[in-house]
Amino acid sequence: MDVISLVRKRLSETYALHAKCINPQFVRVLEVIGFNRNYESGKGAWLVDARGERVLDFLAGFGVFNIGRNHPLVVRVLHEMLDSDPPNMVQMDAGCIAGLLAEALVSIAPGDLESVFFTNSGAEGVEGALKFARQATGRRGIVYCERAFHGLTLGALSVNGNHEFRDRNEPLLPHCTPVPFNDLEALERVLRGRDVAAFIVEPLQGKGVFTPGDDYFPEVRRLCDRYGTCLIADEVQTGLGRTGRMFAVDHWGVAPDILVISKALSGGLVPVGAILAKRWVHCRVFDSMDRCFAHSNTFGQNDLAMAAGLATLHVLESEDLVHRAAEMGDYLLTHLRKMAERYELIREVRGKGLMIGIQFGEPRSLKLKTGWKLLHSMNEDIFCQMITMPLMEKHNILTQVAGHGLDTVKILPPLVIERAEADIFLAAMDIVLAEAHRFPGAAWTTTKNLALRTARSA
User: Fold this and answer.
1) How do strand 46-49 and strand 54-57 relate by DSSP bridges?
2) Cα–Cα distance measured from residue 454 to residue 229, given in angstroms and rounded to the nearest whole number
3) What is the pLDDT of residue 456?
């Protein structure tokens, strides 16, 4: 069987196959916004489509490709593992390579996170972390933040602060209470009942890229200690260098009781994640030989995933990518904030490292305000397509909208980007913003027609 030849032969059928067998509504969305390209290859920060056009990837698989696409070291390590005929997933054994990756993770973890449980995804990590906290504390309550995103499985969804994902799934897990992000008083009101097992929080919120005040996480740590609550840091997207530190909590010198990672740990080639926990938490879950399988999975410690994780950590260190994320993030933030001074549609540019949100808001000038209100009366989520669509169509740059009703464009470039690639993005954004500030104009007409088409198809 020649899989590569088969893919090449049928590449033009990709969207038809997805419409038929996978998710036809997603196909419709991609077609409507002009993102329906057939990609043939990827390397570093670039994709190549079937027309031979290079696309600058400022989405990075939702933060998976911190070390870039198809990094040669990870590819080589995986080939070597396959060629070695590994004794994979014996299950009734303890694999060496899993132990090596766990040791490596513990060595870079904040504080005294000494125990590792391997998962296949971020959502699975969140599910496990919630279980660990409940069993470790003997409590049932979970506190999470409004606008939080922790995954879409049932337990993770119960601590998801976005109604568009929660709808049609109620009732979810009981004893889960939302509080506003960056609100210490609201958090303490809930914790003081001393019945909360865990407060789960993203150091930077992925939906909208909302950042906390400098005193927030140190005070969160203090409150959790005071009321006997586990602090769970969801670093599925923010971890492993994304924000210019190895883990985002490192910005504030805070160590959680449980830390969840995934996405970038895989190098983008084999799904892998991990729950890092303090020893006391782990020992209360796995507290006897009878309970050695108190939490388990089948593929979590598979040799390919463990090898990919080890290789990824090596690349992050050897190529100094955490420092590069900080440096390039400062460069992009500085220049985007200068743009905000010139373009009234931009309300705020926020983020840390290479996790950046560009929030738009109602402009001051009468003409632009008219267009803004018109679009939002038609569809509250449509405005940012005026930015992301031309970035893709005219400039071959892949970006994303940061969430429903937020008017925010989010960029998550690979940490391997160079100054030249940042400049390509900034130049394109300048052109797109200039066009968006011409009302009436082609950008507004295109976006209005998209809103009308979306309304007809609803």
Assistant:
1) antiparallel
2) 45
3) 79
* Per-residue pLDDT at 457: 74
Tokens encoding 57: 């990837």
What domains, with CATH codes, occur in the chain? 37-67+321-457 (3.90.1150.10), 72-318 (3.40.640.10)
247-280: pLDDT as tens digits: 999 999 999 999 999 999 999 999 999 999 999 9
* Contact assessment for residue 1 and residue 39, using Cβ atoms and an 8 Å cutoff: no
Q: Is 288 exposed, middle or buried (0-12, 13-18, 19+ CB in 10 A)?
A: exposed
Tell me the two tokens of residue 51.
């027309």
Partners of 348 in beta bridges: 359
Q: What is the mean pLDDT of residues 45-55?
A: 97
Looking at residue 432, its pLDDT comes to 98
Which of left, alpha, beta for 43 (phi over 0: left; psi -120 to 50: alpha)? Answer: beta
Q: Is the pLDDT of residue 243 over 70?
A: yes
What is this structure's pTM?
A: 0.97
Written as one string, the DSSP assignment of 304-341 is HHHHHHHHHHHHHHHTTHHHHHHHHHHHHHHHHHHHHH
Whether the Cβ atoms of residue 169 and residue 154 lie closer than 8 Å to each other: yes
227-to-62, 175, 194, 412 alpha-carbon distances in Å? 35, 17, 6, 36
